[in-house]
Specification:
Elements lengths: L1 E2 L1 E4 L15 H14 L3 E5 L5 H13 L4 E7 L2 H11 L5 E8 L2 H8 L3 H18 L3 E6 L6 H14 L3 E6 L6 H14 L7 E6 L6 H10 L4 E4 L13 H10 L1 H4 L1 E2 L7 H12 L20 H9 L19 E3 L5 H10 L6 H17 L3 E2 H11 L7 E11 L2 E11 L2 E8 L3 H13 L4 E10 L6 E10 L2 E9 L2 H26 L5
Parallel strand pairs: 1-10, 2-3, 2-9, 3-4, 4-5, 5-6, 6-7, 7-8, 8-9
Antiparallel strand pairs: 11-12, 13-14, 14-15, 16-17, 17-18
Helix pairs in contact: 1-2, 1-11, 2-3, 3-5, 5-6, 6-7, 7-8, 14-15, 16-17
Bound molecules: 3-methyl-2-oxobutanoic acid (KIV) and zinc ion (ZN).
């Protein structure tokens, strides 16, 4: 039985999903959960790309024990140096550098000859090796590269010190049989390949990322790069939970498994979805709401007689237990803290107090509080960036015979500002009023509302996506009143934009 290494890139490639950007606190929280999940390597970010990413890589490297912590770096001296600067206090650091090898990329994007690319790849692997033993190299767009040139590059970077070589299907173009053959070809044609870990990194443009990764494993890949819920650039990356559960369920076929604690999968999926705002589709394999829901009478009948008639894995194997009724308004702080710990949230005293106060307020409005409610409380009270705009007052009137009208008061940098506007509906009136106060030029791209847990007193959770220039951000808000939840979601997105603007101004030494 081979052990396949799981390289999680949720915090790097996953974050490249439009609107899914995370702040340092959020990344740290996810990294700790990934360590509990048992991933072998965490790609914590791309240190050179922004001050936020640098700090995230540094903090995760210093504070998260267990997995190897990795930073991405282009094949450029400044990127490699910055990756090392961020990683030098890490317990188990890795630098991951990359350069394209396909003719399409070299000619049109990098304007380099093959020889120049080969030389640069070798030089940058050597530079990284001067800092750290564990160096990974990725020939980007490998699946569209000339295999003979690819073999040469791989042999050369191994001789220069690469310990892992990762083969990306950058644009999700490969077909499983073909991708498996490419991996086999590397194993057979690159003499030094038996000294390193051969890895794969597949994108999902044709919905084949998991199938391609599995074909690669069958043909000798020892590491797969993947993300929680399959989030990532464009159509995303191979989904960690699908690869892991396929290997676990079909060990007989693959003769391979991973070190993942599968009972942590569901919790991790929910955490990533909650923090990034990337909703998991109900029919998503393994972690979707319907993945273990049996609707047809024939299936239900079979299941009741014998589970294996229609279930190839158990909900418990991914940690999906019946949503627990946590507590009500008489529950104490101790029980509250214990339940949060079970959900993967270890909070400092001050944060715990904030979350507990919100829990008590909610318990006054809502009889039963579920795990899902607690997750929202933590993400809203603890892991939010500092707010420029705070909702202070909201009054909305609407009805079948009335033009909806909203009055909103926001605290803008601490000062109250009040406005009133009408709209096509109560949410529209509220959003127009908030737009008038904040003077935002952003556009609302999507708006979605769902109930968290069941019952007519359930909290409504609203997710919005807004766009300003080329920046897209997601905002989320929850409340037992969906108009208030809608206002909170819009403000959360506007606060993220304001925060980004402030960070950009600081990075360039002040505004214009
Ligand atoms: O998709 C890709 O090629 C990448 C590389 C940086 C590994 O993300
Ligand atoms: Zn990628």
């Amino acid at each position: 039985m081979r052990t396949i290494l799981i390289f999680d890139t949720t915090l790097r490639d996953g974050e490249q999903c439009p609107g899914a950007s995370m702040n340092v606190e959020e990344k740290f929280l996810i990294a700790r959960q990934l360590a509990r999940l048992g991933v072998d390597i965490i790609e914590a970010g791309f240190a050179f790309s922004s001050p936020g990413d640098f700090v995230a890589v540094q903090r995760i490297g210093r504070e998260v024990k267990g997995p190897v912590i990795c930073s991405l770096a282009r094949a450029k001296p400044e990127d490699i140096d910055s990756a090392w600067e961020a990683l030098k206090t890490a317990h188990r650091p890795r630098i991951h550098t990359f350069l394209s090898t396909s003719e399409i990329h070299l000619r049109h994007q990098f304007r380099m000859t093959r020889e120049q690319a080969l030389e640069r790849a070798v030089a940058m692997v050597r530079r990284a090796k001067g800092y750290v033993e564990d160096v990974e190299f990725s020939p980007m767009d490998a699946s569209r590269s000339d295999p003979e040139f690819l073999y040469r590059v791989i042999e050369a970077v191994i001789q220069a010190g690469a310990t892992t070589v990762n083969i990306p299907d950058t644009v999700g173009y490969a077909i499983p049989e073909e991708f498996g053959a490419l991996i086999r070809g590397i194993r057979e044609q690159v003499p030094a390949s038996d000294r390193i870990v051969l890895s794969v990194h597949c994108h999902n443009d044709l919905g084949l990322a998991v199938a391609n990764s599995l074909a690669a494993i069958r043909n000798g890949a020892g590491q797969v790069e993947c993300t929680i819920n399959g989030i990532g650039e464009r159509a995303g990356n191979a989904s960690l939970e699908e690869i892991v559960m396929t290997l676990r369920t079909r060990r007989d076929f693959f003769q391979a498994d991973t070190r993942i604690a599968t009972e942590e999968i569901y919790k991790t999926s929910r955490m990533v979805s909650g923090i990034t705002g990337m909703v998991v589709q109900p029919n998503k394999a393994v972690v979707g709401d319907n993945a273990f829901a049996h609707e047809s009478g024939i299936h239900q009948d079979g299941l009741l007689k014998e589970r294996i008639t229609y279930e190839i894995m158990t909900p418990a194997s991914i940690g999906l237990l019946k949503s627990k009724l946590v507590m009500g308004k008489h529950s104490g702080r101790h029980a509250f803290r214990e339940r949060l710990l079970e959900l993967g949230y270890e909070l400092a005293d001050e944060d715990l107090n904030k979350a507990f106060r919100r829990f008590k307020r909610l318990a006054d409005q809502k009889k039963e509080i579920f795990d899902e409610d607690l997750e929202v409380i933590v993400s809203e009270e603890v892991y939010r960036i500092p707010d420029t705009y705070v909702l202070h007052y909201l009054h909305v009137e609407s009805g079948t015979d009335k033009t909806p009208i909203a009055t909103v008061e926001l605290l803008v940098d601490g000062k109250p500002v009040r406005e009133t506007r009408t709209g096509d509906g109560p949410v529209d009136a509220t959003y127009r009023t908030i737009t008038a106060i904040t003077g935002t030029r952003s556009q609302l791209v999507t708006y979605a509302v769902k109930a968290i847990s069941g019952g007519s007193d359930a909290q409504g959770e609203v997710t919005v996506r807004i766009k300003e220039g080329d920046k897209t951000v997601l905002g989320q808000g929850a409340d037992t009143d969906i108009i208030t939840a809608s206002a909170k979601a819009y403000l959360n997105a506007l606060n993220k934009l304001a925060h980004r603007r402030r960070q950009a101004e600081q990075a360039t030494g002040g505004g214009v």
